[in-house]
Automatic annotation (TrEMBL):
Originating gene: pcsk2
Subcellular localization: Secreted
Catalysed reaction, written as an equation: Release of protein hormones and neuropeptides from their precursors, generally by hydrolysis of -Lys-Arg-|- bonds
A GO CC annotation given for this chain: membrane
Protein's name according to its UniProt entry: Neuroendocrine convertase 2
Domain of life (superkingdom): Eukaryota
Taxon lineage: Eukaryota, Metazoa, Chordata, Craniata, Vertebrata
GO terms, molecular function: serine-type endopeptidase activity
Active site as annotated: 169 (charge relay system), 210 (charge relay system), 386 (charge relay system)
Root EC class: hydrolase
Organism of this sequence: Clupea harengus
Amino acid sequence: MFGFLRYGPMVVLVLVNALIFAIGDTENGILTNHLLVQLHEGSYDEAPQVALEHGFESVRKLPFGDGLFHFYPQSSPLSRRKRSAGHGQSLQKDHRVKSVLQQAGFDRQKRGYRDLNQVDINMSDPLFTKQWYLVNTGQADGTPGLDLNVAEAWGLGFTGKGVTIAIMDDGIDYLHPDLAANYNAEASYDFSSNDPYPYPRYTDDWFNSHGTRCAGEVSAVANNNICGVGVAYNSKVAGIRMLDQPFMTDIIEASSISHMPQVIDIYSASWGPTDDGKTVDGPRELTLQAMADGVNKGRGGKGSIYVWASGDGGSYDDCNCDGYASSMWTISINSAINDGRTALYDESCSSTLASTFSNGRKRNPEAGVATTDLYGNCTLRHSGTSAAAPEAAGVFALALEANPDLTWRDMQHLAVLTSKRNRLHDEVHQWQRNGVGLEFNHLFGYGVLDAGGMVKMAKEWKTVPERFHCVAGSIQETHKVPSEDKLVLTITTDACQGKENYVRYLEHVQAVVTVNASRRGDLNLNMTSPMGTKSILLSRRPRDDDAKVGYDKWPFMTSHSWGEDPRGTWQLEVLFQGEVPQTGTLQEWTLMIHGTQSAPYIDQIVRDYQSKLAMSKKEELEEELDEALERSLKSLLSKN
């Protein structure tokens, strides 16, 4: 069922087991009156009639999978009940119906939403000078030069023209005078109300302003004396309204992610599972299928680009417990504040690829992200990793204009190679270099996106080589995790050398782990590559008290070994960190590596890095020799 790239049967089985994880007891959960119905071949055209005969006023063919349809009522109240005989059972007996699945309701939250209490802001003047994340001159107590370097990209003539970005959120105020000219109505849809008009639902507290703010960051029109300027101010923005209902469903998520993939280039998502420090959750089966189809088939086969906010759980959470942000198919974006430090709500994890900007820590009224707001208004108070993801989508739009042939993987490579440390500072995690010399940070990824550097490299970029996947090894025996020490396991691999799916240069690495603990939040997982790069796969989550579920075939992902040679011995450390001793058992560690068999630019990086190492070692030897000569001279003088 899954549309993977060059996956053999064994890899498909492992991936499906790794990704379709147990989320909870549906029987006691919230079920909707929306059904996923698969019809037998030859009955597809009868879908509307089948729906009506069984009490459903509306039906929609789903673009993923064969013969799949969404049956739903015109008004869709959600109810808390067990599976009932009702319509589902009568449908199942229909000879035209192959299968029926009632959609469960689950929670998805907007990332970075802050209650503004309708702050009264003077909106008469343009806000470009307030947009420090575009051009940072030190305004709002920021650090000059710490920005996205969009000025260089704009100076080269790249403004996002010809690129469409979809904001998957609570809707867009497409009548806003700073968005209307760039609004792509054809590519927009409301999956919350099932109509083509994704306008936000009114609330007294303006809660549904989230999507409009994100849209302004990407595509606000330039030089019209209204609000500010979008990162890609000549791009088109589409609204996909999908967050504004009591509960999310797999059909709504999958439909949103797969909406018009030949028109939409980039999908920006500033939402995910609850950032409460104790939730472990991710995409369900249909959404996984939609993502796989997107990267395989979207944009004429070049692949849809999914940009995801990494999460707002702060030091209490770990974004590797979010199956959206930690997916290989998404570009996970974290945030920095305007002086280069981490935001208090930033989550860290080894799957984060790069960073952009959110707000300042100080209570400066102009330290937030300036953008469009509901009903034609503007705001200076947008914040969170919600603000970071659309900025990244805008930068990627500039790169796509520079080179429309970029694949989804090309964009990830460009992000790794052109992101900069700049003046980003993480007080907890130090900057490190991996085995091929690429500098990374556990929270910021490979650094802040550099729009100028990215478009220049994109112009000359050649598509990366074919991607392969290898199950590098697996340990299935049960091992106890000691309460006072750590469990250390190793897998030695040849990375499938000699086989068709040999991986020589790494992109993503997944550690599929099944582990239980008396307190899940105290578990820590670290993995070290053969080239010595240590990835923190899981940090302590002090609010997670789970003692039953643990992690069941959970695919912890790291991007920190990008470009490395995977051959050799990988080491996994499992330990507890907390105030009270805990117990646990690990049942499985399967190592999955993804990458290419050739990558010339990595070879050049390795040569440059080795040259720098050799030069630094030479300088160290010269210093040691000078010190030795000085000591000898002092000794001779003392004797005389």
